[in-house]
């Protein structure tokens, strides 16, 4: 709307959406990370932002105030920058504080369009007034929310209920299609209400439903209404609801209140005073049941922190909690004579079976068990167990007393309630902002006539990108020639050959697809769907799928990804010169980092004649950076390019320490990796830290390293501490 009115600059809007960050490894000011500084440098290349980087360098105190503010979107920018337009301020904030961008965009919409566009609290009764026999109400379901409660409540008020036979509730599934058709025809004649639940389960029948909804609304009773529910899908390929149904309906979604306070109350609401009174060991049962509720709230709410919370999403439900409560009761009653609490049994049942039954990832299972060990242990009976910082496990209370205790004592919502660092919130909000702008990019029209003359057309921009990439793209490696150059076939050299072969496949695909698209844009070839997909990805600065399938996992933009690709080629170039292991190996640059780490094991096993299956890798974190090393070690390897998430490495003390606020992923010094017999591995006072390719964790798992710690390892387990090869 603002673009069509000429109120915002198309180039600035384009820049805000795509935000092409200049890759840099250093920052000119101490309070900005290299990535943030890269963003500032990129912004400074635009005419209206010229000198921004110099201003940040010369007035660090003023800019630091913005960076460290809890609500930077409400702060005035320093000096003349405060006179910038709201959109220009958004561009600067996208570099300085991406975690606050959703709030800043909200403020931008409110100032530009009005409050009604950001206020989403609507009463169901008001929404119902907009419905009609031909305009149904379509509920997009959210976990933990029952939208039909509102329908039934309003129905009772207006004289529609199941008891009176004026409200019909059909839960769709196998064989229910005919029932639904009969009910709809009857209701349209009699003026009843119909609820059709889970229509996504009957995809084949939905075109018939679309037609039926249209015909049933013709010459029907004025009171006739239809309410439909369906689950949302993850991507457009899974869409099954016909367009007609969606276009003719009022779409409604309602998310549950999130946070520890409502979740803990909800968990406790599954029980009553009768539950607390039923066990002969009342004090122990009540304390442990409260801890179980806190555990349940923790594991369900932790999902909002993405991969740092859980590697995968698990469908933990109230059934897990209620069944666990019954198991707790049975076990305490069974041990009532000995008055012992079978801690190990309960931890196993809850952590491996009830909740653990959902968990498929070994590191998530460790997290689940650690939570249970922290929340349910003998200390809880001595009024000395903190369930989270500032929240002591409650004394022996009645049911209402526990609810009051939560409201009076539970700290305000923050990641520390779940054992995570405050940075986890920033990371979570940053990902939300990135997803918002990625969606906005997808929604942009790519028709040149819709853009200002000053912006390049899609085709012109894409052709420039193609030319730029092809110019920089290295030549493929002659692996046959390399093999002839050396007769040695050590584990390291074999890894080098494998990496060159993988790189050749990727380079060939990039070159082939770009040449095809270039020919297509010049009119020499017919544009295919795969060419269109590639063109869209290049325009939006995304890594094309056909390239990503042959490459290493990455969450970076196309520009950053290409920089990494060039760096990988540079590493391979120097390695293939003489096949001597580089002084410090860039582990992140491998297609298969596991193969290199396995090669470390194999080379030392061959040298020492130790059995490979009885060996393990050990890691010493040095105090040095890559440039401090001139040659590789005599055995093992020096590696670099790793980052820590959830904590930081204290170089002076040589231990894991609390992260600094807003430094989400501090880089690690060079690590010295070597192999030794498994029984010689020092595991006391260490935290077994998983290593992942990207922030998405999960399936990008590479290895695990034992890192020294003075704190109990459980602290870092619940903090979701991990090493990442790429940001």
Automatic annotation (TrEMBL):
Record-annotated Dynein heavy chain region D6 P-loop domain positions: 133-253
Domain Dynein heavy chain AAA lid: 285-424
Domain Dynein heavy chain C-terminal: 432-725
Gene3D superfamilies noted in UniProt: 1.20.1270.280, 3.10.490.20, P-loop containing nucleotide triphosphate hydrolases, Region D6 of dynein motor
Designated name of the protein: Dynein heavy chain 11, axonemal
Organism: Xenotaenia resolanae
Lineage: Eukaryota, Metazoa, Chordata, Craniata, Vertebrata
Gene name of the encoded protein: DNAH11_2
């Amino acid at each position: 709307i603002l673009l069509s009115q000429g109120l915002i600059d198309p180039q600035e809007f384009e820049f805000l959406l795509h935000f092409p960050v200049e890759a840099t490894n250093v920052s000119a000011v101490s309070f900005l990370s290299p990535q943030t500084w890269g963003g500032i440098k990129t912004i400074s290349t635009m005419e209206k932002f010229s000198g921004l980087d110099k201003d940040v360098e010369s007035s660090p105190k003023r800019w630091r105030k913005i960076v460290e503010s809890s609500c930077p979107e409400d702060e005035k920018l320093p000096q003349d920058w405060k006179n910038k337009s709201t959109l220009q301020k958004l561009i600067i904030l996208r570099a300085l504080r991406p975690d606050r961008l959703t709030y800043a965009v909200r403020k931008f919409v409110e100032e530009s369009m009005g409050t009604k566009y950001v206020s989403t609290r609507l009463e169901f009764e008001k929404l119902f007034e907009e419905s009609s026999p031909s305009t149904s109400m379509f509920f997009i379901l959210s976990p933990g929310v029952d939208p039909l409660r509102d329908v039934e409540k309003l129905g009772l008020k207006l004289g529609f209920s199941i008891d009176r036979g004026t409200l019909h509730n059909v839960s769709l599934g196998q064989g229910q299609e005919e029932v639904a058709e009969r009910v709809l025809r009857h209701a349209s004649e009699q003026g009843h209400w119909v609820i059709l639940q889970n229509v996504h389960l009957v995809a084949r029948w939905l075109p018939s439903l679309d037609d039926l909804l249209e015909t049933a609304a013709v010459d029907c009773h004025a009171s006739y209404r239809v309410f439909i529910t369906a689950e949302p899908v993850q991507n457009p390929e899974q869409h099954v609801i016909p367009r007609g149904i969606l276009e003719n309906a009022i779409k409604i979604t309602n998310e549950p209140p999130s946070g520890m306070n409502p979740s803990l109350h909800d968990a406790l609401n599954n029980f009553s005073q009768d539950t607390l009174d039923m066990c002969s060991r009342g004090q122990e049962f009540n304390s442990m049941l409260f801890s179980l509720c806190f555990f349940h709230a923790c594991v369900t709410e932790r999902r909002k922190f993405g991969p740092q919370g859980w590697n995968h999403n698990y469908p933990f439900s109230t059934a897990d909690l209620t069944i666990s409560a019954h198991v707790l009761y049975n076990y305490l009653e069974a041990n009532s004579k000995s008055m012992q609490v079978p801690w190990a049994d309960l931890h196993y049942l809850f952590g491996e079976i009830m909740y653990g039954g959902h968990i498929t990832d070994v590191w998530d299972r460790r997290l689940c068990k650690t939570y249970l060990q922290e929340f349910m242990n003998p200390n809880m009976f001595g009024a000395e167990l903190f369930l989270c910082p500032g929240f002591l496990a409650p004394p022996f209370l009645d049911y209402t007393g526990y609810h009051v205790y939560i409201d009076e004592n539970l700290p305000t919502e923050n990641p520390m309630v779940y054992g995570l660092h405050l940075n986890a919130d920033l990371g979570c909000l940053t990902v939300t902002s990135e997803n918002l702008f990625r969606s906005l990019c997808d929604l942009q029209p790519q028709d040149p006539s819709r853009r200002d003359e000053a912006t390049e057309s899609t085709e012109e921009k894409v052709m420039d990108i193609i030319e730029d990439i092809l110019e920089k793209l290295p030549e493929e490696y002659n692996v046959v020639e390399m093999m002839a150059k050396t007769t040695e076939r050590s584990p390291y050299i074999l890894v080098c050959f494998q990496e060159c072969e993988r790189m050749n496949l990727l380079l060939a695909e990039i070159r082939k697809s770009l040449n095809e698209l270039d020919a297509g844009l010049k009119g020499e070839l017919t544009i295919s769907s795969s060419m269109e997909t590639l063109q869209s990805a290049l325009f939006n600065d995304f890594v094309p799928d056909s390239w990503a399938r042959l490459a290493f996992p990455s969450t970076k933009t196309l520009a950053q990804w290409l920089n990494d690709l060039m760096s990988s080629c540079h590493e391979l170039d120097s390695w293939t010169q003489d096949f001597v292991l580089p002084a410090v190996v860039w582990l992140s640059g491998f297609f298969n980092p596991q193969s290199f780490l396995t090669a470390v094991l194999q080379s030392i096993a061959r040298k020492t004649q130790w059995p490979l299956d009885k060996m393990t890798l050990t890691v010493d974190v040095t105090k040095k950076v890559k440039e401090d090393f001139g040659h590789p070690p005599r055995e093992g390897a020096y590696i670099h390019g790793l980052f820590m998430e959830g904590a930081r490495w204290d170089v002076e003390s040589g231990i894991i320490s609390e992260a600094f606020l807003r430094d989400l992923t501090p880089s690690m010094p060079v690590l010295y990796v070597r192999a030794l017999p498994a029984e010689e591995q020092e595991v006391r006072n260490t935290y077994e830290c998983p290593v992942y390719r990207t922030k998405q964790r999960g399936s990008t798992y590479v290895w695990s390293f034992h890192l020294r710690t003075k704190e109990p390892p459980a602290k870092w387990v619940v903090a979701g501490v991990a090493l990442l090869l790429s940001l």
